[in-house]
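Here we describe the complex-level prediction in full. Unlike the single-chain runs in Section 2.1, the two entities below were treated as one system.
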Amino acid sequence: MPRLFFGGIHPADRKELSGGSAPAPAPIPSQVVIPMRQHVGAACTPLVKVGDTVKMGQTIGDGEGLCVPVHASVSGTVVAVEPRRHASGGECMAVVIENDFQDTPARELTPHLDPAELSPEELITVIRRAGIVGMGGATFPTDVKANSGIGAVDTLLGNACECEPYITADDALLCTYPEQVLGGMAVLMDVLKPGRTVLAVEDNKTEAISVLRSKLAQYPGIELKVLPTRYPQGAEKQLIQAVTGRQVPPGKLPRDVGCAVFNAATYASVYKAVCEGEPVTRRIVTVTGEGVRKPQNWIVRIGASFESAVAASGGLTDDVWKVLSGGPMMGVAQIDLTAPVGKGTNAVLCLSRAQNGESAHPHCIRCGKCLTACPMSLQPLYLFRFGKLGDRAELERLHLSDCIECGCCAYVCPGKLPLVEQFRAGKQALKEAKKP
Amino acid sequence: MKLTVTSSPHIRGKESTGSIMGHVLLALLPALAAGTLVYGLRTLLVTAVTTAACLLSEWLFRVLTHQHNTLPDGSAAVTGVLLALTLPATVPYWAAAVGGVFAVAAVKGLCGGIGQNIFNPALAGRAFLMLLWPAAITRYAALGQALPLFGSAADAVTAATPLHHMQMPALPEVSLADLFLGRVGGSIGEASALALLIGGAWLVFRRVISPRIPLTYLGTVAVLTLVFSKGDSPVLWMLYSLLSGGVILGAVFMATDYTTSPVTPRGQLFYGAGCGALTVVFRYFGLFPEGVTYAILLMNAAVWAIDRFTAPRRFGTGKGGAA
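The structure predicted for the assembly as a whole is:
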């Protein structure tokens, strides 16, 4: 089995459940809940108040610092500005809009058929105004990443690995709208002027690969790289290693090794913002799993509830076990279906009880499989042991902070230890201990 | 509708401790079969006694200490069969039982149970018997001799094992082919090198173990006995050293015990080499002809230290780290 990065696993991908069909527009809900925090960084401040009329694509929240604006995904009336359930758990300030089903456009952005008309600075401004974030789930503001990469990046990467099992949102995007992804890459090539531009896809996406191959001639300078399927190849550091052989040093960023990585859906959003003048108001969401009746990819309005997405897919089965925002390896379990779809929601995954592989009595037999599976070359079994003892000095010595929480260690653990859960708690403890 | 909310990852691999131990038991079957063919049916009864002793003491220990039942994880059964393989078929049943109880209750249970013990339970059980009743576990019946199924086999005609010859030092009278295929006196698991290697190949194939420890162990023994040969032909001396006694049983099944071996890849190489070197040292300079048991037990004690100084290189600090 070829491996281009350290460790990793090869779980059953279950992508056949939702794959194979073009994403259909999901039924548009009568009400959307737009969270003010859909990105890493500072939350937006609402710019509208109850009773205001808003148009589709209108900026309804913005802020200072590491922050990108959020937009209305329907036209209608603001009926509430209040904290609502957020898919990451807990609550977050949100603007609730009653849909008038007119989709009256706000037209805040001007379409530019030829992106070369704009300077890199202007392009970055458009990317920010469109509210674009890392749409693979990391939700880091794209304008900030692009801006910091100017002059530092020799390799621009497109991440279409979609290595998490079950999810086919990027796959569907590549098959249906390849020109959006490739067009978005061309825009960021104009911004970053890289020497090499690579779109990386895992070899289990055969249809997407042939579609891309047929389009590639129209996009000079973009190279398609087909990687052997292996999780977590789509993790930023692992993808850089797989494609370029470079390792991002601890505490450093991809730009420090001359790379910038953006997700396929992020590129598509860049294309739509620059060339079509459209901010992020919808995205492709995979609603899938053994716990939902008709798994499918949908084009969902931002702010539509998980409940509406699940209902469009035939509803939950009787033996549903967990509903996740995201994939089975790194997704966040939901307490109910009230949370809204955000910019980073690539999947609503409903697992049935048959997928429950937990043990009533987790234990470590020191098999060392966690250590060989760890893509960051950590020693999960010792991190677990010292984490349990609360030994912060040992946790630092073993570089707990390097952990990317990909879950490979816990996946392979025959004793079913709650490794990642423990590491999150350990990181929190280290952070708190550092506070003055 | 009640949704479960727990931390990621939300799916787990199919492999469990029970399935791993199942593979180990399967891998031990060829050796057990070879032992039965060579030493007779008493072999199976000895195995039944050690296994029953291990299972019973595991169960009783968990009941008495108010902990959940761990019999389904299969580790006690593996200890039982492994212990039997380290004993001669002539061993008194009571001694086999005492070894099993000591292995599971004292060596594993008192350390905190599965995954917590410092020493390999089966080998520690054998070492315990060796210390208290050496005569009971070093009486090797002559080949082809029918051992009584029930009762004592103490009056069996004993014969020297190939290792006894090598301590002279002299090459044993048995042929290399007999050593390899299984026509030789010794402990149950020492009957056939081939049977042990088949089991080891299964474990490597199923990715239960990595070949690092067995290969470095056997490789070190090979190199040392070749360089410091005591025979006229260093190559023959090396081959007899590898095939006689418990080296292969130790390298394949004992030194690869998860709990008592290093987890880091570099540490496993170091550990295997250490086991090999100590085995040769004990064989050459020790009181007993065999050195495998104490070599591995000694290396067991060093495992945490080995893991510590063979930690994998931190991501991003090695080659390719600074681009």
